[in-house]
Recover the amino acids of this structure.
């Protein structure tokens, strides 16, 4: 059974004289590996599109026994050529891609992470200067979109709005916020600044292009790092 999809190539490698394996992010099936037999020399079927960080329309054959995927042919949609000449932005892109490889597994519904990844690459390909905290926001957003959306806007036990909670705690096991009156000794969480949780709540509703103009305080970024790190470790590692 063959299907066609626009996928993002993450890595490639040679395994015989002219054959390549290709690891890619699919918009619907998570991260997959396919084999391009004769991929190193077939310009007719692949026209030089088999490189990492290329967006490619592949015709993919899953075969009747589904043992492995064969890449039949590919057409380059976007090679992000500007990004590939800019060291800083390329480093940021590599950082985001590493994270996607960490959280996205084969067979996952990857549509949300895929569109976030493409949004980010299009932005980074645009010669813009993105802030150094971009990968942190990307990781938070990707985690939230990939099935672990926290609830920041109110205490999950009494309903008090976050804007009225003076010393909120973030519970990383269930992604909820509780006020100081509702926190229990058995909770798995820690105190975070109200403004940091508001910042993360705002992040949920924005896209990468919105982040360029942001200038959060250092302590907000520190909180975000701690929250995202604890949340990812608990749920995804
Ligand atoms: Zn409460």
């Amino acid at each position: 059974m063959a299907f066609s999809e626009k996928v993002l190539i993450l890595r490639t490698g040679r395994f015989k004289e002219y054959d390549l394996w290709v690891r890619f992010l699919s918009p619907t099936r998570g991260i997959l590996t396919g084999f391009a037999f004769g991929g190193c020399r077939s310009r007719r079927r692949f026209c030089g599109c088999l490189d990492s960080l290329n967006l490619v329309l592949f015709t993919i054959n899953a075969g009747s026994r589904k043992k492995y995927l064969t890449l039949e042919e590919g057409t380059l949609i976007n090679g992000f050529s500007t990004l590939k000449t800019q060291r800083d932005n390329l480093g940021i892109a590599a950082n985001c891609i590493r994270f996607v490889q960490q959280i996205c597994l084969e067979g996952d519904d990857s549509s949300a992470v895929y569109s976030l990844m493409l949004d980010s690459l299009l932005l980074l390909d645009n010669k813009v200067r993105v802030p150094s905290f971009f990968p942190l926001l990307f990781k938070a957003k990707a985690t939230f979109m990939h099935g672990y959306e926290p609830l920041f806007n109110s205490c999950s036990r009494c309903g008090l709005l976050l804007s009225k909670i003076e010393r909120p705690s973030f519970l990383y096991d269930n992604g909820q916020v509780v006020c100081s009156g509702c926190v229990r000794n058995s909770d798995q969480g820690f105190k975070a600044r109200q403004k940091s949780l508001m910042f993360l709540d705002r992040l949920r509703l924005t896209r990468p292009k919105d982040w360029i103009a942001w200038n959060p305080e250092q302590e907000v970024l520190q909180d975000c790092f701690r929250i995202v790190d604890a949340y990812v470790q608990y749920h995804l590692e």
